Each structure stands twice: as C-alpha cells, then as structure tokens.
Amino acid sequence: MRQPGDRAPAPEALVILQDLVNTIDIEEDRDALRTVGDLAGFCSGHGLDDLVFDEADVDGARRLREALREVCQAHTGIDVPSATQAALDELLAAAPLRLVIGADGSARPEPAPGPAGLPALTARIATGILTAVADGTWPRLKACNAHECRWVYYDRSPAGRSRWCTMSICGSRAKMRNYRNRSR
Question: Do residues 163 and 153 make contact, with C-beta atoms less than 8 angstroms apart?
Fold first, then answer.
C-alpha cells in the first residue's frame, strides 16, 4: 500500500496491521472493507488465501481496524479508551496463539491451528504485534494526529516523535492552524 509522503511502510511484522487500519480513507470517506469480498481480497493480498468470511466478520474486521487505530494513536501519547480495550480483549480472546520453538532454540509466536475467518486474521495481526514488541518497533506504528486523517504510518524519525503521517500535508495544516490561532 502506498504511504503518505512516500514514507517507507512498517516493518514486515506490522505491514498487515498497517494495511488493515489504512483500508479506510477518513478524509475522502472511502472504505475498502465494505463486503465479504473486500475482506477476502484484503486477506488474499496478505497471503491468507484460505480464510472464509461472513458479514459478521466484516463488521468485526472494521471494529478491529478502528480499535487498532486507537492503539496506534496511543503511541503519540493519547490513552486508549476503555471501550476500545474491551473490544480488543474480546477480539483477541477468539484468536489463540502458540509459541513455536525452533531447532536452533529460537522462539516465535504463531496463530494456533483451528481458528478460521476473523479470529485467524486477528491471530495473524497479534503475532505481528508480539514480534514488533520483541524487536522494539511496536511503539513507532502511529496514527496521524490530524483528526481528519488518522492514517497509520511507521515513524522512522531518529527521535521517534513524529506526529503526522506527512509533514507536507497534515503537519503543514496543523502548523498553519496553530499560527492562525496565535495571530488572532
């Protein structure tokens, strides 16, 4: 998926999460997850070809998407609402993971066998989050501070303090708004 300001996408473990959250363009009011076919196509594009969904899964995927956006917003210093935490708890409880130990002694999480549909997608995303937590990249996946945007981007700035998906659009608008407010 093309990133705003030509930013590089998130590390591999977080790409599916970033792409899921960015299936909606808030500013243009375009949602790429409207139907079962849309959700199946999204998953197929991320190597999850064998998942079968129904309408309830589409609603659940949109709930998951918005909850994950709130979590990414928390990476900019805004607390995750308790309702969002409850929604994530419910969605993640249906998506079991297992720990796999390699022959070389390495360990990695992976989705447990059995779940299908939305729980399988959620488990795949949870696996990516755990991998990102372990390698320290998780806090750099952020939602743009511009309320009309909220695009999820990966912050590669040296200090990790980026607040907007792109400085040339959202950052510039915010700075201009602040300047006008101070000038009044």
Answer: no
CA distance 153 to 170: 12
> Collapsing DSSP states into helix, strand and coil, what is residue 50?
coil
pLDDT of residue 4: 63
Q: Quick: pLDDT tens for 102-136.
A: 999 999 999 999 889 999 999 999 999 999 999 99
Alpha carbon distance 120, 87 (integer Å): 16
Question: pLDDT tens digit string along 49-86?
Answer: 999 999 999 999 999 999 999 999 999 999 999 999 99
What is the Cα–Cα distance from 112 to 123, expressed in whole angstroms? 8
Strand residues in the chain grouped as ranges (E): 24-25, 30-31, 97-101, 107-111, 141-143, 152-154
In whole angstroms, give the CA distance from residue 20 to residue 23: 5
Give the span between the Cα atoms of 159 and 177, in whole angstroms: 24
Q: Which pTM value belongs to this model?
A: 0.88
For residue 137, how many other CB atoms are within 10 A of its CB? 19
Q: How many CB atoms lie within 10 A of CB 172?
A: 12
- Sign for the pseudo-dihedral over CA of 139, 125, 151, 156: positive
